[in-house]
Write a sequence for this structure.
C-alpha cells in the first residue's frame, strides 16, 4: 500500500514537487561536468581509425539525445499500457507528460545529427536508415501529441492516445527493420554501428555522463509537466482548492 | 434486476454525481430527472456500459456489467439522442439489420407489422432520409416492438415526436412495464404513465 | 457468427451501392494523384519508369487512408455504431466485416486499375504484374491498419488529415516492400519472393490483431 | 588554449555551436515554458475559486 | 466592412489558436508525404533532385486541399454558417476573410518549412529560393480555388476525397507553373520570370472571382 | 410586416404545401403546427430566404425578400435546430461576433448582461464546449436579448431546455410580441402565451 499511495495524483503532486529540484540539480551538475570533460579532457579527433575532427564533439549531445528519444518512447508506451490495464489516471498523465520531452530530444537528435552530417558526409540530410528511423520516431511523437490534443474529453484523449502509443510501439521494430533492410535478401548488411567499446575512454565517459544528465533532466521536465496536468485535471477536487487557497 | 451502487461519473474535470445508488426491479419505470447538464445522459450511458464510471459498480442480476459484456447487451435496449438508423436504407432494412445484430430472428411479417404499428404504413421501403425528423424517430422506435430485452434505457425519447407518436410511445412503455419489464428514461416533459411503479431519481443540485 | 459477419458485410455493400459515386471517388483520387506527378516532374520515360512503383504505392496509401476516414464516421454520426457496441456480438467481428466491405469497395478497384496506371509510367508487363500482386496483398493491410486510426479519430475535427498523421508512418513497411517488390522484379521476378512472403506475413498479423485494436479504439472513442 | 581557439573548435565552430545552441535553447526553453504554464494554471484556478467560493459546482 | 472582415479573420485565428495542434497537423502531413517518396522510390541523389519540386508541389496541393475540407465544415455543423448567411453582410466578404485566415494558418507554414524539405531532396539554394517564392504566390491560389470546392461539397459524406476530385484538376495549372519555375531555375533564375507573372495573374483572378463563386456555392449547399 | 402569398414548397419529390398564404402583422405570434414531416422546418427556412420556394412570393414590408436580400436579414433573426455557436469560443466571444456581424454595436456590458439574464453568470468566459446541451442553447438564445430585429423566426426553440429556461424564453417572446415585434415559431409543446395576438397555422393533412 505504502508505495501505491503515490499512484494517486493527490499524493504524487507534492512528492514530485519535492523531487524536481534534486533531479534538476543532478542534471545540471552532470551536464556541466560532462561538457567540461568532453571539451577539455578529450582529444581533438575521434581517434582510432576514425578521422573525424573537432566536430565529433557533437556526439556529446547527439547520442544522449538519440538515446533519450528512444527511451522516452518506451516510457511513454509503458505508462500507456499500465494506464489501460489498471485504469490509473496518473499513468496516463505520466505518458502525456513524457511525450513533449521525448519529441524535443528526437528533434535535437535530428538537428545535431544534421549538423554532424554536413562536415562528415557533406550533406545535412541523407536517407540513411538510422536518420530515417529517427525521423519516423519524431512523426510518432507528433502523432501522439496531435491525437491527444485533438480530443476534448480528457479521458478519451488519454485512452485513445495510449492505444496509439502501444500500436506505435508494436509497429516501430517493423518500421525500423523495413527501412534498415529494404532488400530482404541482404539483411546481413545491416547498418554498421560504431563500436562503443573501441571509443576513446574519455570520450565515452563524457558521453555517458551527458546521457545521465539528460536522463535526470527528463525526470525533472516530465515531473514538472505532470504537475501542471494534475492541477488542471483535478481542479475541482478539495485538495487542489486547498492548495490554491494556500498559495493565494 | 439492475443494481447500482456507489456510482461516480466525471465528465471533463467535473464530477457530475457521486455515491449514487439505486436498484430497478422488474415492473418499474425509473424517471431520471435533473436540470440541463446535470448528467442524465451520462448516467444512462454508464448504465449501458458505453461509459466507464470513475468508481462504483453496476450489476445486472448480480453480475457486474463489465464482466457480462455481450450477455448484458442481449438483455438491454438503448435509445439515445441519435436514432441509430441508416438514412440510405429503408425502414425495413434498418429493422432487419438491427434484429440480426440483436440475435432476434423475427420473420419479415413482424418487421412490416412493427412499422405499421408505428404509423409508417406506406413508408416502409422508402430510404429513411426522405422522412421527417419525427418519422425517422418512429422508425428507430419500432425496435421497441421487436425487442425481447427486459431492460429499456431511453434518453429523451419524446423529443421531436408529435402528440400521436407520444401517446403511442407512452402506451408501449406502459405495456412493457406492465409485462414486468424495466424502463429507465429521461425527459423534460411530464410522463403521465399510469400502470406499474414509477420511481423518480433526481440528479444535480 | 458467420450470419452476423455477412449481415454487416451486406449492409455496408448495399449502402455503398446506393451511393455508387463514393466508390468511384476513391478510384479517381488515386488516378488523379498518380497523374499529377508527370505534370510536376516531367515526362521523360526513363525517369517515369523509376518513379512508377513508388508513386503508385504512395497514391494507394493516400487513397486508402482518405477513404478510411469514412469507415466508421457515417455509423458514428447517425448512432448506428453506438447501437453496434450494444449488440451481443463481439465487436472485433463487426469491425472485421466493415473493413472487409471497405476493402472490397475501395482497395479492390485500385488493384484492378493499377495496370492502366502502370502503362502511364511505361512499366513493363512483369513490373505491372508484380505491382498488381503486391497491391492485392498490400492494400488489405492498409485497410486493416487504417481502421485503427479511423476508430481513434472518430468524430474529431480535421479527421482526414489527423488520420494521415497517425497512420502514414505505420504504412511505411508496406510501402517499402510493396514498391521494393516492383523495383526488384525489373531484374528477376524470382527475386520478389521474399518481398511477398513478408507482405503475406504482415497481412496475417494485421488480420489477427488490428480488428481487436480497432474494436478497443472504438470503445474508447464512443465513450 | 585561448578562448578564441576554443570557440573556433578547429574551424568547425558553426556546426558544433549550432548543435549545442539548439540543445541549450530547447532544454532551457522547455524548463522556462513549464514553469510559466504552471504559474498560469495556478492563477487561473485561483480566479475560478474566487468566482464560485465554496462547494457546489454550478 | 473592414470591421467585419477583421472580425471574422480574428475569430478564425482565435479558434485555430485554441487548437494549435490542428495547424501543426497540416504541416506534418506535408512533411510526412514528402518523406514517403524516397522510401518508395529510392534515395539516389540524382533522382531526388529531379523529383524534388514536383513532390513538394504535389504534397502542397494535397495538404492544402485536405486542410480546406474543414474550411466551412465546422461552421456548417454547428450552424454558425447558416447564421452568417442571414447577416446583413455580403457573403463573399465573409468567405474572403475565412480563406485569408485559412491561408495564414496552413499555407504560410508550408512556405516556411519548404527550405527544410528542399534539403531532404538535395536541392540547391537557388532552387529552394525559387520554390519558396513560388509557394508564396501559389498556395493562396490553392486556398482560394479550394474554397469553391469546399463550399460545394459541404456536408456531403466523403468530403475530403470528393473535394479532391473536384479541385485537384483545377490545381493543375498552379502545379505546372509552380514546379516549372523551380525546374527552370536550375538553369537560370531569370528564366523563371514568366512563370511568376503567370502565377501572379492567376492569383489576382482567383482573388476576385473565387470568393463570389464560393459564396454562391455556399448558398446552394446550405439549402 | 411579413406577407406570404401562394407559397409552394417541395422537398425531394413531394410537395409539402401549396397555395399557402398568410400575413404576420406587428404584435402577432404565429404558431406553425403540424405533424412530423409536415414541412414546418421547410416553411421557416423558406421564410428566412435560406430555401427558394417552388412558387409564390414572400414579401417584407411590401418588397420581395429575394430583392431585399441583406436588408431583409437586418430585420430578421432566425433560430434553427442548430445553435450556431462556436464551441471553442466563450459565450461572450460568441455573442460579440454575432453582434458585429449583425451590425449591432452593443458595448461589452450589454453582452455580459445578456448572458447573466440567461442564467449563465459565471460561465461567460468559459469555452461553450464545457456547457451542457441546454446551457449551450441558452448562450444561443442570448442573441434574442441583443437583437433589434422586429421579426423572430424560431424553430422548436424549447427543446432541450429545462423548465426555468422555458419560462424565461416564453417571457422573452411575450415581451417581444408586446413590443410590436413579430414571432413565428414551431413547437410540439403547448405555448401558454398570454399577451398579444396568437395565430395558428396548421400544415399537412
Ligand atoms: C540527422 C542525422 C542523424 C540522426 C537522426 C542520427 C540518429 C542517431 C541515433 C538514433 C543514434 C542511436 C543509435 C543506436 O544507438 O542505436 C545515433 C547514434 C550515433 N550516431 Fe547518429 N544520427 C545522425 C547523424 C549522425 C552522424 C552524421 C554521425 C557521424 C558520422 C552519427 C554518429 C553517431 C554515433 C557515433 C552514434 C553513437 C554510437 C552508436 O550507438 O552507434 N550520427 N545517431
Ligand atoms: N464529452 C464531454 N466532455 C466534457 N464534458 C462533457 C461531455 N459531455 C458532457 N459533458 C458535461 O457533462 C455534463 C452533463 O452532461 P449530460 O449530457 O449528461 O447532461 P444532461 O443531464 O443530459 O443535460 P441535458 O438535459 O441538457 O441533455 C454537462 O455539464 C456537460 O458540460
Ligand atoms: N434535404 C431534404 N431532402 C429531401 N427531403 C427532405 C429534406 N429535408 C426534409 N425533407 C422532407 O420534407 C418533409 C418535411 O420536413 P420538415 O423537416 O420540414 O418537417 P417538420 O414539419 O419540421 O417535421 P418535424 O416535426 O419532424 O421537425 C419531410 O417529409 C422530409 O421527408
Ligand atoms: Mg441529455
Ligand atoms: Mg422540424
Amino acid at each position: 500500500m505504502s508505495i501505491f499511495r503515490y499512484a494517486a495524483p493527490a499524493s504524487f503532486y507534492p512528492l514530485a514537487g519535492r523531487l524536481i529540484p534534486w533531479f534538476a540539480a543532478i542534471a545540471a551538475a552532470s551536464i556541466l561536468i560532462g561538457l567540461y570533460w568532453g571539451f577539455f579532457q578529450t582529444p581533438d579527433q575521434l581517434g582510432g581509425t576514425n578521422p573525424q575532427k573537432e566536430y565529433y564533439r557533437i556526439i556529446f549531445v547527439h547520442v544522449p539525445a538519440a538515446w533519450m528519444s528512444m527511451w522516452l518512447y518506451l516510457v511513454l508506451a509503458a505508462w500507456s499500457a499500465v494506464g489501460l490495464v489498471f485504469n490509473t489516471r496518473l499513468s496516463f498523465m505520466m505518458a502525456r507528460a513524457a511525450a513533449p520531452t521525448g519529441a524535443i530530444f528526437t528533434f535535437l537528435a535530428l538537428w545535431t545529427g544534421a549538423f554532424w552530417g554536413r562536415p562528415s558526409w557533406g550533406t545535412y540530410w541523407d536517407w540513411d536508415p538510422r536518420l530515417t528511423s529517427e525521423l519516423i520516431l519524431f512523426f510518432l511523437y507528433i502523432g501522439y501529441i496531435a491525437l491527444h490534443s485533438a480530443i476534448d474529453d480528457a479521458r478519451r484523449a488519454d485512452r485513445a492516445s495510449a492505444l496509439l502509443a502501444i500500436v506505435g510501439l508494436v509497429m516501430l521494430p517493423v518500421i525500423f527493420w523495413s527501412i534498415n533492410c529494404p532488400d530482404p535478401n541482404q539483411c546481413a548488411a545491416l547498418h554498421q554501428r560504431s563500436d562503443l567499446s573501441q571509443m576513446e575512454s574519455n570520450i565515452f565517459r563524457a558521453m555517458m555522463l551527458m546521457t545521465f544528465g539528460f536522463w535526470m533532466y527528463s525526470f525533472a521536465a516530465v515531473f514538472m509537466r505532470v504537475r501542471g496536468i494534475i492541477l488542471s485535471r483535478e481542479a475541482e477536487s478539495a485538495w487542489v482548492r486547498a492548495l490554491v487557497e494556500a498559495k493565494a | 434486476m439492475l443494481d447500482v451502487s456507489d456510482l461516480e461519473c466525471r465528465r471533463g474535470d467535473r464530477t457530475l454525481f457521486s455515491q449514487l445508488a439505486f436498484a430497478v426491479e422488474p415492473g418499474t419505470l425509473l424517471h431520471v430527472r435533473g436540470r440541463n447538464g446535470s448528467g442524465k445522459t451520462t448516467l444512462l450511458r454508464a448504465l449501458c456500459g458505453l461509459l466507464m464510471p470513475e468508481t462504483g459498480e453496476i450489476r445486472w442480476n448480480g453480475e457486474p456489467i463489465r464482466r457480462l459484456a455481450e450477455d448484458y447487451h442481449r438483455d438491454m435496449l438503448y435509445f439515445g439522442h441519435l436514432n441509430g438508423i441508416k438514412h440510405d436504407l429503408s425502414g425495413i432494412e434498418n429493422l432487419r439489420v438491427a434484429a440480426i445484430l440483436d440475435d432476434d430472428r423475427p420473420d419479415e411479417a413482424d418487421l412490416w407489422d412493427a412499422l405499421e404499428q408505428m404509423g409508417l404504413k406506406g413508408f416502409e421501403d422508402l430510404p429513411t432520409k426522405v422522412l421527417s425528423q419525427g418519422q425517422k424517430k418512429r422508425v428507430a422506435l419500432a425496435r421497441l416492438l421487436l425487442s425481447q430485452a427486459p431492460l429499456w434505457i431511453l434518453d429523451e425519447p419524446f423529443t421531436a415526436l408529435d402528440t400521436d407518436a407520444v401517446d403511442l410511445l407512452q402506451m408501449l412503455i406502459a405495456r412493457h412495464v406492465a409485462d414486468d419489464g424495466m424502463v429507465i428514461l429521461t425527459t423534460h416533459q411530464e410522463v403521465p404513465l399510469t400502470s406499474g411503479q414509477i420511481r423518480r431519481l433526481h440528479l444535480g443540485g | 457468427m458467420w450470419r452476423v459477419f455477412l449481415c454487416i458485410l451486406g449492409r455496408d455493400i448495399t449502402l455503398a451501392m446506393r451511393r455508387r459515386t463514393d466508390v468511384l471517388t476513391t478510384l479517381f483520387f488515386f488516378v488523379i494523384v498518380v497523374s499529377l506527378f508527370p505534370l510536376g516532374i516531367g515526362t521523360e520515360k526513363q525517369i517515369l519508369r523509376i518513379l512508377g512503383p513508388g508513386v503508385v504505392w504512395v497514391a494507394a496509401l493516400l487513397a486508402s487512408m482518405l477513404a478510411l476516414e469514412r469507415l466508421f464516421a457515417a455509423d458514428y454520426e447517425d448512432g448506428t455504431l453506438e447501437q453496434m457496441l450494444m449488440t451481443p456480438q463481439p465487436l472485433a467481428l463487426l469491425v472485421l466485416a466493415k473493413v472487409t466491405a471497405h476493402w472490397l469497395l475501395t482497395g479492390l478497384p485500385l488493384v484492378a486499375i493499377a495496370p492502366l496506371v502502370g502503362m502511364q509510367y511505361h512499366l513493363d508487363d512483369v513490373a505491372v504484374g508484380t505491382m498488381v500482386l503486391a497491391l492485392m496483398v498490400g492494400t488489405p493491410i492498409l485497410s486493416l491498419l487504417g481502421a485503427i486510426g479511423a476508430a481513434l479519430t472518430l468524430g474529431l475535427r480535421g479527421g482526414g488529415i489527423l488520420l494521415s498523421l497517425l497512420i502514414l508512418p505505420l504504412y511505411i513497411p508496406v510501402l517499402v516492400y510493396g514498391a521494393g517488390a516492383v523495383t526488384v522484379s525489373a531484374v528477376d521476378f524470382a527475386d520478389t519472393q521474399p518481398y511477398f512472403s513478408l507482405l503475406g506475413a504482415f497481412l496475417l498479423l494485421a488480420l489477427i490483431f488490428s480488428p481487436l485494436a480497432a474494436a478497443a479504439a472504438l470503445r474508447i472513442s464512443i465513450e | 588554449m585561448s578562448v578564441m581557439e576554443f570557440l573556433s573548435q578547429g574551424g568547425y565552430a558553426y556546426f558544433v555551436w549550432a548543435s549545442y545552441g539548439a540543445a541549450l535553447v530547447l532544454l532551457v526553453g522547455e524548463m522556462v515554458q513549464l514553469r510559466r504554464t504552471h504559474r498560469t494554471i495556478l492563477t487561473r484556478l485561483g480566479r475560478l475559486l474566487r468566482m464560485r467560493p465554496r462547494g457546489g459546482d454550478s
Observations:
- The radius of gyration of chain A is 21 Å.
